[in-house]
Write a structure and sequence with these properties.
Two copies of one chain form a homodimer. With about 525 residues, chain A is of the alpha+beta class. Chain A has three domains: about 1-110 and about 480-520, Uridine Diphospho-n-acetylenolpyruvylglucosamine Reductase, domain 2 (2-Layer Sandwich); about 115-235, 2-Layer Sandwich (Uridine Diphospho-n-acetylenolpyruvylglucosamine Reductase, domain 3), CATH 3.30.465; about 240-470, FAD-linked oxidases, C-terminal domain (Vanillyl-alcohol Oxidase, Chain A, domain 3), CATH 3.40.462.10. Chain A contains 14 helices and 19 strands. In chain A, the strands form four sheets. In chain A, strands 12, 13, 14, 15, 16, 17, 18 and 19 form an eight-stranded antiparallel sheet that branches. The first copy, chain A, is globular, with a radius of gyration of 23 Å. The first copy, chain A, starts with 10 loop residues before the first helix and ends in a 23-residue tail after the last helix. In chain A, about 60% of the residues are buried. Chains A and B meet through strand 9, helix 5, strand 17, helix 13 and helix 14 of A and strand 9, helix 5, strand 17, helix 13 and helix 14 of B.
């Protein structure tokens, strides 16, 4: 393991900075041991060397004041900081900083659920609160509200929202259901956004917009501030919840299916963020790859057919949920079956009518029960990691088919299985392509990285932009948003320089570098 | 009429700037005549002298390139610009600039409906497109989507969204249903936000968030850019729409009513942005004040009782709409009547069951039919204007009663009638208090302005913040968001100075002044 020093610092100045951090947070909350402490802050699915995106140290403040103290030290010594909430974010870099040698600011100790309003339906959380913890809090107190949860429940509610992550109930768009932020700016100033900027405000967590410019978006997928509190709207617990699965045994039915689905999402007949998963992604949740196939190269179509039969699922498997009274759910189910009965290969199952473990997991998630079952797919191979390419697409069959066929063909060209998850909004889809690889195998990593670059290039040509990305491709993705000679990046850089003149906060995150590091390669 | 020159400019430098503007947009699109041309850009409801917030000139570009040209001239001569879309915004200053002597940039000529997608449901509009025009476009082509409309349909779709205005269908939160902006920055650079920053993007108007920091909010209620294009999501036309009114003949039933209403809004039983209007606001839509009362001072309770009887309405009148199939609407109506039957004085009317002209108007608006009928209230007195105080409040009965009682009592103290409109969201309410005044009467204006200042002071003490405000109170309102020694305003000023170093764009809007004018009084 190599220690990366932050650029521009000497061993001496770095040691001084570490001493200063220790004075702020206490000795034991500054981690510097590169054998025993720092590796747990590496990207668990490293696409380059394991320690490529490694921090030089980790600082663990316990309060907003300590965060401000850490930021003050960073400005004094020009130490780059990389704030994380809990540091999950699998497929997108985990806890690892974009800039090798940055000091991770681990906010897990700030884990208070500050307030829950059981009438108007919101929670106020610190960065260290996980979905599982917030859910437990609500259940233990019989609070009749749900917190929407993502695939894996161990992540931070605040961190997931800042990365604009998604879940699967009607409140699945986490940014859309946040309300109110407290933020430490790169110079240590402390702001509250929206109505929360009024002392004693009674609508800080009820009304999203405040008076004057709306800053919340500025602090998402960004390096302009460290968010220390977040308001989160909770979904009123529905009278009932019934999950279902629709399997499509023919892969080409994807297009027709999406074309029927989109208007139902738009008019709220299907009210939750639903997902359409490819065969092998679901197969991975059931058994390791070797159970299905031990040959070389991508799993052949003939084997895929057998997997389909064994698991009694389709090439595509759609997971939705219906909410409301029993009568309402019956009506919804009639409407849904009627609509999709036009798809020749569609088969319909309520949650209890099929023994698929994926359906069981999805049923929990769509009923806002956080869990870790989706991590089962990591048993696909030994040392299995994944890197995700996540382009947005219009929610039409034509676009779904283009994304699927292009990605599948490129995956095969690079010797990879296609594993896709299409998460369907009202007008758009997150088309998330998980590329699995062996994170101990340099050849496999090189090939995987080359594939991801190809996927970016091909999708960009057709106007599909990614909503999020791994540190290794952040600059590439930022460069695809190039209208008017990269005007958006220019705007980001001007704001970066104005708010963070010393360039200390998360340099390079989302392709935004501070002036002193701009144009260098890291 | 006095011509205000922009601060710092001489007659000579101003004349040069005007010549330069003429070269950009053509002679006839620069207006400078203070007798015949500029008065139509004054606030129609001037609370100070009629020409207090008067522009020094008006420039009318016809394209994005011309807007950029105008901005270039402004930077060269340090001429402050005040962009307007169509310039309605009644009660909040109309087209008038916050800084006396600013040059209004009137964008009405940019009135193209650039695109309407009749499948995924969005429109892309320029600033000069009104709600009425966009609605006409959709109806003429039988496009099965609605554009949500505000009280008055003549305003700009883009302008209303930027001021975070609201309408009354389920898409009533206009900022929430926008998607994608094109913005000319104060230095003339041109950015597209979100996915639109990718050349050839196919999700520019489908996915709101893009990659990296989200800038859209920065350009709302702000002076950081001139928005030249906006994507707007359209509501799928429902199977049916049925408006209704619930009248409360006892004013004190307000609290109980709101407490029953809020959970129904939150769980979507009542799916649209609904409103609860006070007696005199509705009376004003029917006849002038003199029809009801010709005495001095506020209308007495005894007269109010008579008005109630004459109009067959309540002290409070709630307007909602149900959407869907006939069967579904019948079910909704049962649920709604059951829920509110606990309110002793509640009476229930479907739209055709009562001849109230207000109900007829609200029925149109909740069915997305833009109109100008709400302007009837301006016949209340001769020379009738209004200034609006618009604090947000938690959607509970306790808060509704406090806002009502405090505002009513203060109105009476200042000799004014109470006219309130409570617009009920899922967790919060816009409590809009219209204070009517005679805009030709200096004594009335002074008294009205003093009342507004008192309302701000009293509401701020209790944590109620205004969501929007008239130019005459923008600095006061900005000052109420004072957490951490005005940290939010400090942030605004840093971004202002970074993006607009010459301080040319809408100085003072929402209390944000550029460095060169900060601390002065205008």
């Amino acid at each position: 393991m190599t220690r990366h020093l932050p650029p521009g610092l000497t061993e001496e100045s770095f040691a001084e900075a570490i001493q200063a951090f220790r004075r702020v947070v206490g000795d034991k909350w500054v981690l510097t041991d590169e054998e025993t402490q720092l590796p747990s802050y590496y990207d668990p699915f490293a696409i380059f060397e394991a320690d490529h995106f490694a921090p030089s140290a980790v600082v663990k403040p316990s309060s907003v004041d300590e965060v401000r103290g850490v930021v003050a030290v960073a400005n004094e010594y020009k130490v780059p900081l990389h704030p994380i909430s809990i540091g999950k974010n699998l497929g997108f870099g985990g806890p690892a900083p974009r800039l090798p040698g940055a000091v991770v600011v681990d906010l897990k100790r700030m884990n208070r659920i500050i307030e829950v309003d059981d009438r108007l339906g919101y929670a106020v959380v610190e960065p260290g609160v996980s979905f599982i913890e917030l859910d437990n809090y609500l259940r233990e107190r019989n609070i009749p509200f749900w917190v929407d949860v993502p695939d894996l429940g161990w992540g931070s509610v605040l961190g997931n929202t800042l990365e604009r992550g998604i879940g699967y109930t009607p409140y699945g768009d986490h940014y859309a259901v946040h309300c109110g932020m407290e933020v430490v700016l790169p110079d240590g100033d402390l702001v509250r956004t929206g109505m929360g900027a009024m002392p004693g405000s009674n609508t800080a967590y009820l009304y999203q917009y405040g008076f004057g410019p709306l800053y919340d978006g500025l602090f998402t997928q960004s390096n302009f501030g460290i968010v220390t509190k977040l308001g989160v709207w909770l979904l009123p617990k529905p009278a009932g919840c019934q999950a279902y699965m629709i399997t499509l045994s023919k892969e080409e039915d994807l297009g027709q299916f999406i074309d029927i689905l989109q208007p139902l999402r738009l008019n709220n007949t299907i009210s939750n963020v639903s997902s359409l998963r490819s065969l092998l992604l679901d197969a991975a949740a059931v058994a390791p790859r070797s159970h299905y196939y031990t040959g070389d190269g991508p799993i052949p179509d003939s084997v895929a057919e057998k997997i389909k039969d064994e698991l009694k699922i389709g090439y595509w498997n759609f997971y939705g949920a219906m909410y409301g009274t029993e009568a309402s759910i019956r009506e919804q189910w009639d409407l849904i079956r009627d609509a999709f009965s036009a798809v020749p290969s569609a088969k319909f199952y309520l949650a209890h009518e099929h023994d698929s473990p994926v359906l069981a997991t999805r049923a929990k998630i769509m009923a806002a029960q956080p869990n870790l079952e989706t991590a089962e797919i990591l048993k696909w191979t030994d040392n299995c990691g994944h890197i995700d390419f996540a382009p947005m697409a219009p929610a039409t069959g034509e676009h779904a088919l283009w994304q699927y066929q292009t990605t599948r063909d490129l995956c095969r060209e690079y010797g990879k299985d296609y594993m896709g998850n299409i998460i369907v909004g009202r007008r758009e889809m997150h088309t998330i392509h998980l590329v699995m690889f062996d994170f101990t195998n340099p050849t496999d990593k090189e090939r995987t990285y080359a594939l991801i670059k190809r996927l970016i290039a091909e999708s960009t040509k057709r106007g599909y932009g990614a909503y999020r990305g791994h540190p290794s491709i952040m600059d590439d993705l930022a460069a695809t948003y190039s209208f008017n000679d990269n005007a958006l990046l220019r705007l980001s850089q001007r704001i970066k320089d104005a708010l963070d003149p010393n360039g200390i906060l998360a340099p390079g995150k989302q392709g935004i570098w501070p002036a002193r590091l701009r144009g260098q390669q890291f």
